[in-house]
Amino acid sequence: MTISAEQIKKLRELTGAGILDAKRTLEQYNGDFDKALAVLREKGLKAAEKKAERVAKQGLIETYSHGGGKIGVMVEVNCETDFVAATNEFRELAHNLALQIAAFKPRYVSLNDVPADVLEAQKKIFADAAVAEGKPANIVEKIVQGKTDAFLKEVVLLRQPFVRDDTQTIHDLIQSVIAKLGENIVVKRFARFELGE
């Protein structure tokens, strides 16, 4: 089986893998591009998880204005080096995060940012509603868990489905960029403004 330079190039662009790694993986799977892509992405995600503990103090603040100035977003995205902060991939990620925030209105970056009292109050609302509907106690707990998960997907940026590809979450998107660029990337904070709010 002959592996073309075009296949290797495309695989490298999609995964950030090295030339030899891309070629070997394609050869291992007899030129099956989709299998090679899945394997290299998984490998990259595992490498990204290892980088999560590294300090990220460089980066940029991305701004975005939508609807003729009716919605504005500022998001601080950090990485480890100014070299990575200057790459097109990092800038594109920051822009996509700003678009996401404008479109989906998250309130918190991560689950750790959700105040315990807010979460408990929301759970109580869900439980009270289920009890008012006459649901049995064992079902109420399941309803509360399901509605709490849905609530967190709505208000936590990292749990939201990506606005441009809802097959992945924002967390998955960031992990894929970490795998490509080889540095830890962190969404530090954001602010969203909407005219009249």
Q: What structural keywords apply?
A:
Tetrahydropterin Synthase, Chain A; single chain; 197 residues; two-stranded antiparallel ribbon; alpha+beta; GTP Cyclohydrolase I, Chain A, domain 1
Secondary structure: number of strands: 5
In the CATH hierarchy, the third-tier topology of the largest domain is known as Tetrahydropterin Synthase, Chain A
Rounded mean pLDDT score:
87
**Strand numbers in spatial order across the main sheet:** 1-2-5
What top-tier CATH class of the largest domain fits best? Alpha Beta
**Second CATH tier, the architecture of the largest domain:** 2-Layer Sandwich
| Rg, nearest Å | 21 Å
Point out poorly predicted stretches: none
Beta strand %:
15-25%
Terminal residue distance: 61 Å
For the record, what is the CATH homologous superfamily label of the largest domain?
Elongation factor Ts, dimerisation domain
* Number of separate helices: 8
Order of helices and strands: HHHEEHHHHEEHE
Helix content: 55-70%
C-alpha geometry: globular
Q: What's the number of structural domains?
A: 3
Based on secondary structure, the structural category is alpha+beta
Largest beta-sheet characterization: 3 strands, antiparallel
